[in-house]
Design brief:
Strand content: 25-35%
Largest sheet: 6 strands, mixed
Order of helices and strands: EHEHEHHEEHEHEEEEEE
Oligomer: single chain
Structural class: alpha/beta
Radius of gyration: 17 Å
Distance between the termini: 8 Å
Helix content: 10-25%
Number of helices: 6
Shape: globular
Number of strands: 12
Amino acid sequence: MNGGPRRPPLVVAHLSDLHFGRHAPAVVDPLVDDVAALAPDLVVVTGDCTMRARDAEFVQARTFLDRLPAPLLVVAGNHDVPLLRPSRLVAPYDRYRARLEPELDPRLDLPGIRALGLQSMPRWRWKSGRVSRRQSATVATFLGAAPAGAVRLLALHHPPFTRGPARIAGRAALLRATTAARVDLVLAGHTHLPASRRRDRPAGRGPVEVVAGTATSLRLRGAPRSWTVIRIDDRRIHVEHRVEVAGSWRTGRTAAYER
């Protein structure tokens, strides 16, 4: 990006897979303090706020979210939908919408950033998720119409660039939409393994995908609890994974990508 004075970086705090109901209570207060200390312009939570979509878990998750800096963008994960109850078929999102976020595909327009969240957990698909053609069209129209120079951010629970048996249903249409909309940043969770990469197509112009680890869960998969801070300036996207060590948060892996 060229021309004019350089602006201070936008700061996005990205948390995921909180799993309240099977979380580590001792890390919650230090996590809130660590996020707040960075004074983020936006906090994004990419799903699995609860362990089994129970009322008490949603109350715990809501209490935690209310302590994070605003503005806040939250999307649902597979654990935010009831597992083996009739409500999974007749009212899968009612508790989530009542307690956490009434919009399943929330939108935010902020100075310097336009953000869209997608609900990637249909009632009938448990693990890999799905994005509909309607949702992909919304990516193209809403993010594609962002003001010039604004960061175009997409958030969903399931990593959309995954290939093979674990790939999200509707992947091809979604990736075409991210290209058409010139999306800068795709945030996801689900794996509990922090990672970042640039999509390899089209060459040099694809969005950066950032997958956050689990911030508070006891369900570790060979990596410590973590969350991600993303700083975006006129030229680069800087990704810093914050990892939990004995109850405090420290800088882990970092990466930088050209915008």
